[in-house]
Amino acid sequence: MSEGRRPCLGGRRPRLGGSSRPPRWAQSLHAPRRGRARSRRGALVASSAMTSSTSSTASPATGTRALSSPATATGPARATSAAAPTGEPTREHWMDLLRGTAILLVIAHHLRLVQQIWDGGTPWTMVELSEALAPFRMPALLFASGLLLARSLRRPPGRFLAGKLRGLLWPWLLWSAVMLPILGWGHADEPLWWLNGMYTWFLAALFCYYVIGLVTRRIHPGWVALASVVAWTALPLLGTAHDLVGPRPDKFVFYAVFFFAGAALRPMLARRPVPWAVTVPALAVAAAWALHAARFDAEPQVPVLTQVVVLLAVVGVVGVLQRLPRLRALRPVEWLGRNSIVPYLVHLPVIELLGRHSDLPAGPGTFALYYAVTIGVCVLAVLLRPVTGFLYAFPARKAAAASAGAAGAAVAQPVDPVVDSAVDAAADAMPARGTTPGRPDADAGARR
């Protein structure tokens, strides 16, 4: 051993710089992939050695060996490539479908509320459907966001926080300001309105969840989800009544369970679909819960039970989506899900402007027209995103953006501030219920 060089203990070189190794619960998500990659490399080496020893000749020009019998070699190689993945992660389209479906339901819900405020009525079917699905829209989007927490935590803490500041807090501040001239400048000096009085509250909540995820990255997210249930249940016992529709951000505690449950269940969902033994009962419970919400025109609010039932319902829907074939008719919904932050942020200003400045009579036809116009504007906004990206994330430096673009080409699930795939952030912007036509500004500003 040369002088001045210190031996590496255990034959390993020391790690230089800070460690960005993901927490153990996040590493389990990638362990199977590494194992399959090793198996594939071993199979390829064995196949190459076998074929080179039996059917190869020396190349006089280069001294290397060239296969003389391609037919002999392609058999094992083809079998190996078919049995093992190529090492590139495959996109999980059910996640896009979950986000896209939830976004479409959010748009329909907001349109129904705004139409009731400004036109005095909305189709009865949409009212009942909106009430029935009210308990599940927001939790589904948060669950989808939590699924990508482990991947985000693989970044160094500095990059992690910088990304959330750019992709969550910037659009939260910008689009809240966009709504001020629509809803009234009087809200500008109300701190709680900025935090929780507008549909952009979801971005602020997601930022809080991601920061909590970073601080508790060595703790399994299942424990964090359980802690949120305990905290929500303890509020009334401490003399604080629950408030999900007011300006107080109580909902941040209520909805945290769905985000961290998504992070906790991610490894299991990556390995296999939700079993039918869980999916079928979960959907049955969800149907009963939805009927209750539609009948009483209110979401059931039972401590612990509400969160457990809604989470079970979301898992049941995931089980169905995982088994759906990739139908051509559903591709547009997947596309919206991949870009979900754009329709999430764009749709409500469009709906508010339509409701305030159009004089069409209320009815199913008007509802369908407004819905089609809103979706059309959202699609156009997605297509314009390459030149309007600053509306959805704070512009990065050119070098960082170039490196992120190169990395993004190799990553199957892209990053979008709403659910990290268009979603490091994003989702349900719901006007508060119990609104009255006499107070349109305050009503349209509060979101569930």
From TrEMBL:
A Gene Ontology biological process term: enterobacterial common antigen biosynthetic process
Record InterPro entries: Acyl_transf_3_dom
Domain Acyltransferase: from-to ranges: 93-381
Main localization category: membrane
A Pfam family the protein falls into: Acyl_transf_3
Subcellular location(s) per record: Cell membrane
Annotated spans, Disordered: 1-88, 429-448
Record's compositionally biased regions (Basic residues): 31-41
Signal peptide: none
Family, similarity comment: Belongs to the acyltransferase 3 family.
Name of the protein described by the UniProt record: Acyltransferase 3 domain-containing protein
The species this protein was found in: Brachybacterium paraconglomeratum
